[in-house]
Design a protein that fits this description.
Pfam families: QSregVF_b. InterPro entries: QSregVF_b (IPR024530). The chain has 210 residues and is mainly alpha-helical. It has two domains: 56 residues, no CATH class; 96 residues, Alpha-Beta Complex (Nucleotide Excision Repair Protein XPA (XPA-MBD), B Chain A). The strands form two sheets. Strands 1-2 form a two-stranded antiparallel ribbon. The chain has a two-stranded antiparallel sheet with strand order 3-4. A hairpin with a 5-residue loop joins strand 1 and strand 2. It is elongated. The relative contact order is 0.13.
Amino acid sequence: MAGTDYEGDTVMGDYPPEPGTPQLQIQPPLADFTLPFGKFKGRRLCDAPMWYLNWLTDGITDPSPTFTAALTYALATSSFSEMEIDWYPPAISAAPNKFHQWRKLNDGKPKSTDTALWITTNDTKEYFYLGDEILQVMKVPKFPNDEPPQTNATNNMSPRKTLNNVARYGLYHIWDLSQVYITRGEADAALRRFMNERPRGMGGGLPRKN
């Protein structure tokens, strides 16, 4: 490609590559990897605090190789010390109605752990990216698990016991805690997905409509 220098003489620059010539893809250095989601979206991963890096390690499933490499680099080079995050579980009685079983509320029962929707440990990670370690560190209260087993009876088949021995947490608590790590919009999207995908009357304690 031709051009001119400061004296006006014609000089030749680099020629464009021949058609079909493979182009070298230059990857940005790991230090410049930016987060595409969460509380620190748009910021460099290596600038995130240690508590957030630890959450990423525990909460993100099936990360890409690039993300894994950048996270490993950030953990190794972080200048932040581990800090405990102040989070206190909000009162279940103050949760909006959507976090409670409407049938029990219609029966006049006060809002409590008895009326609240719940979520299992497996689903907290699948939908809200909160693993067991985070739940323990943040001291998320467990719900009592002494209810009759939930069932899924269809086609005159015998009821099938499900999830009667799995740890449960208040859906309201999990939704609230997730906002320490992801944005309110992302937490709301996770909540909608959970409410839409869990079978009614099973798993998440969702109310059944007859």
